[in-house]
Structure to design on (278 residues):
């Protein structure tokens, strides 16, 4: 029997959906069939980014999508089902009588499966070179989501980041999808901020090109290597960096609105049950 997963939307959203699928498929002893469709917000194929091999051949009658529209959300699957399972989602899911979706218990189960994905050698080499050159593991990571994410901009203002950044004297590894934001924050913390630059290629800060998506994965992996992450609400990028790299994250903002998946943290958190900050 197969477990067919169609992760949608951007890179980090897809990684969390794929991680849930690998977890549940493992519990059900099923083979993963992966639909990884490109669209304007995801220009790269899965094989451009990761070494892992999944069956990606089409299945008759399975309606799949690239963007985050028209998808299933917050599902609880029946582990005893004898039917083929087909899911298109940019979110997460669990199983009946299992961990609650979005809960710490769910993440504790899922995070090893997401971490198990192996980036291609090109990306691993770039990440290693940049990390060693700039001592990223001695920095505090900062991820500020902007551009088209209205909820993140509304609930996580620059003042929230500044308040948390002012608590440390450590240097910052700064990530943002907005070049003006990076310029503004770097100026405020002049001499203490670095941002990602590919050592060999021009990689635009966009999801509309393969190089741009590869750049995003490099930044995500580097962010996860930092001491800790100051992150945005309603953005999966910082969360996935924390899940994969193990750096604790504190998502800053006005308030939590759990029904809208807007989470503000009172302290730094990890995904394996510990509270240790490197």
């Amino acid at each position: 029997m197969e477990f067919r997963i169609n992760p949608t939307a951007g890179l980090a959203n897809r990684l969390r959906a794929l991680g849930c699928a690998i977890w549940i498929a493992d519990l059900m002893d099923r083979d993963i069939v992966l639909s990884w469709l490109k669209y304007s917000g995801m220009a790269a194929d899965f094989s451009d980014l990761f070494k892992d091999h999944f069956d990606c051949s089409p299945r008759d009658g399975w309606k799949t999508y690239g963007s985050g529209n028209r998808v299933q959300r917050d599902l609880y699957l029946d582990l005893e089902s004898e039917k083929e399972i087909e899911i298109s989602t940019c979110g997460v899911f669990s199983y009946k009588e299992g961990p609650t979706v979005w809960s710490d218990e769910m993440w504790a189960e899922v995070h090893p499966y997401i971490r198990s994905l192996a980036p291609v050698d090109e990306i691993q080499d770039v990440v290693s070179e940049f990390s060693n050159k700039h001592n990223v593991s001695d920095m505090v990571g900062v991820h500020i989501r902007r551009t088209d994410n209205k909820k993140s901009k509304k609930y996580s203002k620059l003042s929230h980041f500044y308040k948390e950044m002012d608590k440390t004297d450590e240097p910052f590894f700064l990530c943002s999808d907005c070049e003006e934001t990076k310029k503004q924050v770097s100026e405020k913390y002049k001499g203490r901020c670095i941002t990602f630059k590919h050592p060999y290629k021009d990689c635009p800060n966009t999801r509309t090109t393969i190089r741009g998506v590869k750049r995003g994965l490099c930044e995500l992996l580097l962010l996860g290597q930092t001491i800790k992450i100051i992150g945005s609400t309603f953005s999966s990028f910082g969360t996935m960096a924390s899940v994969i790299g193990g750096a604790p994250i504190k998502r800053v903002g006005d308030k939590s609105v759990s029904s809208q998946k807007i989470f503000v943290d009172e302290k730094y958190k990890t995904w394996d049950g510990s509270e240790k900050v490197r």
Summary: Residues 11-28 form the longest helix (18 residues).
